[in-house]
């Protein structure tokens, strides 16, 4: 239950992330535990939240050479593509709603040739009490806000080093390719 854990405003989380040593971003468990111990107060995210009925939105909150922090807003039924994180660590917390993370094992990829082979691994639910870290040994995944959850959701993502491209995969078609990433808002302002 979250009642035993005190929530913090997003600015407090940013202050603490900025004080962390570089080593904190090299392993997944210490930062996942930090996010579990400091759930973010949903109301403090208001300046960073934008919604789009067609596609989830990526909203940059903070960026340093060590990490970037964003809020992603998910309408009911929205999902990301299956994707990787360019060999960077990733942590996700859900201050609003709940989401599923579907993890995949990458058997083979040839990005230049546009082909891949993926196997489903597992599905994990994230909610306010359960943040997660992407497994660096099997980092390919998709985030889903299933229709049956019947509520909007917001996820906070911390990437260990900023990156602006990733590889997306179609497990059904066995295809993959690189895409450029963008933000809908940066620091609370539209792009």
Structural overview:
This protein has 191 residues and is mostly beta strands. The chain has a single domain (2-190), classed as Jelly Rolls. The protein is built from 2 helices and 13 strands; from the N terminus they run ααβββββββββββββ. The chain has helices at residues 10-19, 28-37; strands at residues 57-63, 68-74, 82-83, 90-96, 98-110, 115-127, 132-133, 140-144, 153-159, 165-170, 175-180, 185-186, 189-190. A 7-stranded mixed sheet has the order 7-4-9-2-1-12-13, with helices on one face. The chain has a 3-stranded antiparallel sheet with strand order 3-10-11, with no helix packed on it. Strands 6-5-8 form a 3-stranded antiparallel sheet, with no helix packed on it. It starts with 9 loop residues before the first helix and ends with a strand.
Q: Any guess at the CATH architecture?
A: Sandwich
Structural class: mainly beta
* Mean pLDDT score: 95
The CATH topology, please?
Jelly Rolls
In N-to-C order, the SSE pattern is: HHEEEEEEEEEEEEE
Helix content: 10-25%
Q: Supply the number of structural domains.
A: 1
| Distance between the ends | 37 Å
Low-confidence stretches: none
Total number of helical segments?
A: 2
- CATH H-level superfamily: Jelly Rolls
What general form does the structure show?
Answer: globular
Portion in strands: 35-45%
Number of strands: 13
**What's the Cα radius of gyration?**
16 Å
Please report the first level of CATH classification, the CATH class.
Mainly Beta
In spatial order, strands of the major sheet run 7-4-9-2-1-12-13
Largest sheet: 7 strands, mixed
């Amino acid at each position: 239950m979250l009642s035993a854990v005190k929530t913090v405003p997003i600015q407090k989380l940013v202050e603490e992330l900025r004080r962390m040593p570089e080593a904190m971003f090299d392993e997944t468990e210490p930062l996942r535990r930090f996010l579990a111990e400091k759930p973010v107060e949903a109301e403090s995210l208001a300046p960073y939240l934008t919604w789009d009925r067609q596609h989830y939105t990526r909203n940059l909150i903070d960026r340093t050479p060590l990490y970037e922090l964003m809020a992603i807003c998910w309408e009911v039924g929205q999902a990301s593509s299956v994707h990787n994180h360019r060999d960077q660590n990733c942590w996700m917390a859900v201050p609003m709603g709940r989401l599923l993370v579907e993890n995949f094992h990458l058997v083979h990829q040839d990005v230049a040739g546009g082909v891949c082979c993926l196997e489903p691994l597992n599905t994990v639910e994230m909610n306010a009490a359960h943040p997660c870290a992407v497994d660096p040994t099997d980092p390919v995944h998709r985030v889903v806000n299933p229709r049956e959850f019947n509520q909007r959701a917001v996820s906070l993502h911390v990437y260990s080093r900023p990156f602006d491209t990733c590889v997306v995969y179609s497990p059904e078609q066995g295809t993959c390719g690189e895409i450029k990433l963008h933000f809908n808002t940066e620091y609370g302002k539209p792009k």
